[in-house]
Amino acid sequence: MRVCRWVTAVEWLVLAALLPLVLLPSPVRAAALLVIPLVWLARWGATGHLVPPTPVDWSLLGLLLMALVSEYATYDMANSLGKLMGLVYGVAVFYAVVQWVGGAPRRLWWGVAVLYAAVLGLAGASLVLFGWMGSVPGLAGLQALVPAQAAALVPAGGAVNPNEVAGALLWLLPLAALLAGTAVFRFRSLARRFHWWGAALLVLLLAGTAVGLLGVLVLTRSRGALLGMAAALVLMGVVGLTAVSRKLAAALVVGGLALLAAGVMVVGPERVTAVVAAQAGLDSGDPLNTLAGREEIWSRAIYGLQDFPFTGMGMNNFRQVVHILYPLFLVSPDTDIAHAHNHWLQAGLDLGIPGMIAYMALWLGLAWMLWQAWRQARDGWLRALALGFAGCLAAYFVYGLVDTVALGARPGFVFWGLVGLIAALHRVGNGERGTGNEER
User: Fold this and answer.
1) 390 closest CA partner among 241, 272, 233
2) Distances (CA, A) of 70 to 293, 309, 335, 407
3) The model's pTM
4) What ranges do the domains of the chain cover?
5) Which residue has the higher pLDDT, 99 or 256?
């Protein structure tokens, strides 16, 4: 029993040691993930459960089971291995976050600080190491300053698409913006707790982080991500306004929808579609980034779902199979189509329709937990946290309609950390306390 408690206590160290292996996957390194079920068995011995119970347990079980089933259909296990490792590791991160936070608000805020550090680290690494900073006007010269030893850490072909970086930024940016605004609004209460200089430093840090992340988002030139950020700001504004006046919030929503409908009727649906496509970046000369090109990719993804409804193609195989089974007319066969440019379709291609359903159930479960956390929050800061998390999910959802960070992708462990914090916030709101290592 003492050994089980000790293993459970060092779970974070185990996951930290496994992270480099997940970022640089190989068949030999994949065997190291067998440590994860051993840690869960130790938790069972220490606490009586394999994983801390959450409302999305069945959804995650469905994803893991369908990940195994999809490997039956994959034509190349090595091609799918990296994504499979990333998904398994991400679920382990989720449960580690929930276990560590338990029901302790202080640990929840420490977890938020780690989320800040992880997203800032991803943003910095993408700028410095992964080869797209040179495409940004005015920053190309900075790439030459990157030490050769650091650049050598990036595997061949390991460049990160700026659109993927933009998607990862959305896992924090709406929350960062809301917390910065809340800190300014509640400056007096912060000053009473941390003194005026401590409160001022905190506001500067929060505001500087939000502005910096927004700047990187702009540099990615991902209009889909910018649309997602705009949707998050609208959602947070409307929901936040309900705390002041529900009638006013309802009137603004109804009025806005009426104006939108009137605008569509006056301008015309086709013109509106063209404008939205332009704002989403689907009007460029590159066929892959045109609305017609995306529609062609989406149609091929639907063909794939029809041909592989139960097993999917296997994780990460759409990029290979699409050119063989479903040739495209607008996009060159030499173009690497990494995913279906839609997170729902990509989940179905990777894990089959049952896996897509499990993925949908995960999103519904997260929305329900955030709604409960918003209603049951004991103070304004927890409410702000719930609303900020909701903004992050809304932003990524909108972004995911035209692009995606596929399940199991390298930066995906940050998304699972965000999901774990949402489940932990729900437990804090319910007044629950975890077992094993929560604050006393």
Assistant:
1) 233
2) 27, 10, 25, 13
3) 0.86
4) 51-429
5) 99
